[in-house]
Amino acid sequence: MAMNRSSLRIVWIALAMSPWPMTAVAATPANSTSDASFNASTHVFRLDGGDVTYAFGVNTDGALESVYWGARLAPGDPLERPKAKGRAFEIDDTPEEYPGWGGGLLAEPAVKASFPDGNRDLVLQYVSHKINGATIQIVLRDIQRDLFVTLQYSMDADTGILARSAEIANKTNSPVLIEQAAAGEWNLPASSHYSLRYLSGRWGGETQLQSRAIEPGTTVLESRRGTTGHEFAPWFAVAQDTAVTEWDGQVWFGALAWSGSWRITIAQDPLQQVRIVGGFNPFDFEYALAPGQTLASPMFYGGVAQHGFSEVSQLESRFQLAHILPQAPQPRVRPVLYNSWEATTFHVTEQGQEQLADKAASIGVERFVMDDGWFSTRKDDHSGLGDWYPDPTKFPNGLKPLIDHIHGLGMDFGLWVEPEMVNENSDLYRKHPDWIIHFDGRPRTQARSQFVLNMALPEVRQYVLGFLDKLLAENDISFLKWDANRNFAEPGWPQVAPDQQKKLYVDYVEGYYGVLRELRARHPKVEIESCSGGGGRVDLGVMKLTDEVWTSDNTDPFDRLSIQDGFTYAYTPQVMMAWVTDSPNWYNRRSTSVTYRFLSAMQGSLGLGMDLNKWTPEDLETSKALIAEYKQIRSVVQQGMLYRLVSPREGSNFSSTESVAQDGNKAVVFAFLHSEQMQYPTPTVFPRGLRAGTIYAIRALAGSTVESTPESASGDFWMHHGVAFRLEGDYDAAAIELIAR
Length: 741
Ligand code: GLA
Prior knowledge:
The protein is an alpha+beta fold. The protein folds into three domains: 5-307, Beta-galactosidase, Chain A, domain 5 (Distorted Sandwich), CATH 2.70.98.60; 337-630, Aldolase class I (TIM Barrel); 645-740, Immunoglobulin-like, CATH 2.60.40.1180. It is built from twelve helices and 36 strands. Strands 6, 7, 8, 9, 11, 12, 14, 15, 19 and 20 form a ten-stranded antiparallel β-sheet that branches. An eight-stranded parallel barrel has the order 21-22-23-26-27-28-29-30, surrounded by five helices. Helix 3 (350-362) packs parallel to helix 4 (400-408) and helix 10 (594-601) packs parallel to helix 11. The protein binds alpha-D-galactopyranose (GLA). Alpha-D-galactopyranose is lined by residues 341, 371-372, 416, 483, 485, 531, 533-534, 550, 553.
């Protein structure tokens, strides 16, 4: 059934047989359309959405080749059939959509397979396609064997963000070992001027924006840790050239929706073509497919912005709010929460929590979250994980009295859990030492005195779902902070045959997602935060199942400026949890004012984590006023369009961000001074994104000062005349609101 030029034909597959549910495209603005089409004479597929066109075609060898990815083209624009250039055993010059490793491929493959007879040659060719609305499904098959790959492309009408994925099906009569499986390959035209942006990090120093020229060779962004990891975010952005700024120039960007080990490679080949391949991390990877079995890749989302990096963030944020988050297309704004972790660490008591709750409620907190330390024998991090019942010495009558107290104060109640983990010193581990990820007979490495339960095991999933379900059924809990404080080590799964064990990397994550999904189905009102030693599990996969993420354990408001700045390159501010905590900060002993701490945290979803018992009445009054202010502006901050006006990175002494409501009626501008020197005035800030002729009134938020300004002026005035804040000394901050009349 090998396909070549003469035998090319279109086979329409019954929709009912599709392995994917067709993507539901949410309601779109009137001026946004999306479309997918196939031109039978050129063999080119084309997807249009937002300001973007994506095209690929069946080349003269029957392979699927990229044709175009960029600004939206006119409907009749010529997109010619790609001519196969062949594999010259020197350079691969064919930019394929999903190349198998075979036929002399030298570039990064999307899929690599090993057959039981020793054959490892895989050459994929087009077989058939199906178009439904703005979704295209393509079936590829090896030139000889019944190994099939179904590619799925769905274009978003509003943002032009394309969702891609692949499913590999073994329809042979023998098992096949999949050794590498990507979600897709993105190809950029040849150029030596590209520059790459990506996010690197570590515990306490997440999402640091990096930039480097794309040169011959490969940049690898990855996690080998079993979870998303702090080290890199599964996200990339490629600027067309070094002249691209926040506001101008073309940028291609993409994000992988996967919370396990992942890899994205960005390679420039000797012809200066750039290929970006992303999916499961092939390191230590093997997925055995029995006859009839399939392996589905994660989703890879990609888009193009014509107006620099701020447009990248705005498109991503709109897309994530409308299509990714569990409450999409209209996620509710995040409530202001209080979390007890920094105040009490493990030393929680019923009375202590109630005391904190009284104070939290009095200043306007809407959700009270009890963190670690409430369960089993948990006095420190050496015991208790796995045994999820309230510590009877701390909560003699269970959680109900505390929860009732919190409800009585008008707040809802949230709880910290770390469901995938177990301490050696726990009843669960004593009973089921084989439930953890391990190799039989080998040492079991502990981290924070804990092991990782194997979520690929059905009995573990059942246990985890069981105790969470019970906790939520028996207690009126509105929110879970789901933590995971360590990575995999010794990634063995001795309960299955050796050739099945490496499935762990996929099946663990599917197990974790499955529990989250089922829990949400059983308790639809419960909201969940993804936490992993701070921001160690943030990606579009987990964001489909959780409502917010914990950005970093580093709550220092100055460090947070650059962590939050980096975060917003890839993810919507709606999910970016930011707390106000004590000063000096526990992480670095830096001292800052209450207002500075609040304004830093108010750039995301506001939380509080201070020891309220130690706060003076004056500081509590300031907090109350700023929480009230936040409630006025939060929908704009969380769901508006972000403009990073002045960067806090690279030793910047001053930074500023602005959020503009989607309807343009309101804007909020934040400004932060690191250190005043020689009485230089605070730099003037030039807001963006306002409606030129509309009159906006200016209002300084409580405790903020601006130099003398008119009370109101046109959008043009504010954007071009600017706003002069008055910031003094060290770590000063201010914020204003511009409100359309
Ligand atoms: C992790 C989280 C913290 C806190 C502790 C509790 O470090 O990131 O916010 O919940 O665990 O042990």
